[in-house]
Amino acid sequence: MRSIQVQVPRQAVCRVLALAAEHDADDPIVVRAERRSTGAEPTGAEPTGGEPTGAEPTGGEPTGGEPTGLHSASHDGDLSLVLVTIPNDRAGGFIAAVTAEVGDAGFVLLPVGALPLSSPLDRLAGRVRDVSRLSTLELVAASLQSVGAWRGLLLFSVLAGVVGAYGLIFDVAYLLVAAMLINPMGAPALVSVVALGIGDGRMFARGGWRFAVSLVVQAAAALALGFGYGLQVSTAMMEQVTALSTWAVVVALAAGAAGAQAQVKSERDSLVSGTAAGFMVAAALAPPAAVLGLSVPLGRWDYFTLMAFLLALQYLAIALGGWLVLHAFGIRPADPSIGRGTARTRTALVAAVALVTLGLVAWQTRLEPSFTRADLSRDALVIARDAVDRTPGAAYIQSTARFTRRDLVRHPGQTLLFDVVVERTGEHGDDLESAIRRAVRALVADRMTGVVPFVRVTVLPGPEGPAGP
After folding, report:
1. How many CA atoms lie within 13 A of 226 on its CB side?
2. How do the residues of the chain divide into helix, strand and coil, expressed in percent and rounded to 5?
3. Whole-number Cα distances in Å, 30 to 48, 114, 374
4. Claim to verify: residue 102 and residue 210 sit in the same structural domain
5. Mind listing the pLDDT tens digit for each residue in 246-303?
């Protein structure tokens, strides 16, 4: 539940209490404060005599010389402070209703969970079992607040770029994880997610702009470290990051869904922390951003193209996956909010994001093998097994396959390294290693395009058979 402090003229207290009851609020507490015509701040607070603490609204019209809803900010007289504890998802509607009916109203929404206690205490169990999502108003307000945090975004972008690049250069996996933890790109990506949910095009653009700025800063930091170190050769970890799959979009969709769930859930709605969900978003973005910067000192423009493509796909898929979760939670443009969203804008944005995402995935499947190397590596394992099965005198044990740096001069195409381990099961008229190697190369030529295989075969003797060569 959320705690809201509502400051209104004393004449409007009864109406505020009625609206609180309509929005399923717990028993409100009313405090009286005096405001003098000189403009001085309230000098004290005491329980209101006419409205006892915790009193339920009577349903009558507010008393006073002015009707409810006509008070202006310049009104001089008594003010009352109403402390309302309300379900998370009703907070935005309550604030909007009070704003519409009571012109001179001020609010303080405390963005933390509240536990309403009142006698008898056994009522507490029934109140706290209902854990609802955050209101759209609070969700949008938190997103807009993060949009203004530029200093932290830039600082953590530099740090994430340096740490991520160091981890990639020296193949230190835990430093790459550290770069994910401090990577700030997830925050602007989730701003775009919220913007899709309420149909706010301007907010979506601001989230995308901050995402792009963070990406450029991280890539620049990684580039500077790569030039400073004198990086000349790519590492095994870079090869892993640049091995793309057509299923990479699924990870981004899941990351966006997890991030949106963390944004909209209440503090006690899940055992998974918001930090953990944010880490999943960063895991999809931090390594490609570092490789993007390191590709320049390496002169690997194929890396640059791959990572630019992947980051664009990840950003759009995160936005789409997050929107699906927000839509399932009931976030709509019509909800009370401080955003400027419309249903028409939401439909146009969601359609555009979905079409571009699907277009990128379809395009990826038609590009050269470098854009699907992870898929080809898995297919290569099937090729190795089939090659061994077709070779008499050998039984398949295991194999590995990975792509490495291609040599455009000697061997045009993607270089794929096979390491096949087999068991000798009988006599073979020809050299067994050479026969398996030829079978692997023939299957690669038949099933793959633009791939140059290098095959190493290890023949092991059977448990009671003769020693292999």
Report:
1. 28
2. 55, 15, 30
3. 7, 17, 63
4. no
5. 999 999 999 999 989 888 887 666 666 666 677 778 888 999 999 999 999 999 998 9
Question: On the CB side of 39, how many CA atoms lie within 13 Å of its CA?
Answer: 2
Q: pLDDT digit string (tens) for 25-51? A: 877 777 765 554 444 444 444 443 334
Domain count, the chain: 3
Residues 337 and 272 in one domain: yes
Q: Which domain holds residue 409?
A: 373-460
Tell me, yes or no, whether 83 and 164 share the same domain.
Answer: no
Residue 187 in tokens: 């925050």
Whole-number Å distance between alpha carbons of 147 and 202: 12
DSSP three-state, residue 51 = coil
What would the pLDDT profile of 164-217 be if each residue is shown by its tens digit?
999 999 999 999 999 999 999 988 999 999 999 999 999 999 999 999 999 999
Q: Which residues touch 137 (CB under 8 Å, ≥6 apart)? A: 91, 92, 95, 96, 335, 336, 337, 338
Short-list 135, 55, 124, CA closest to 92: 135
Q: 3-state SS string over 155-166?
A: HHHHHHHHHHHH
Tell me if 353 sits within 8 A of 394, measured CB to CB.
no
Alpha carbon separation from 321 to 44, 250, 292, 465 (Å, rounded):
50, 9, 24, 56
Query: Are residues 98 and 204 located together in one domain of the fold?
Result: no
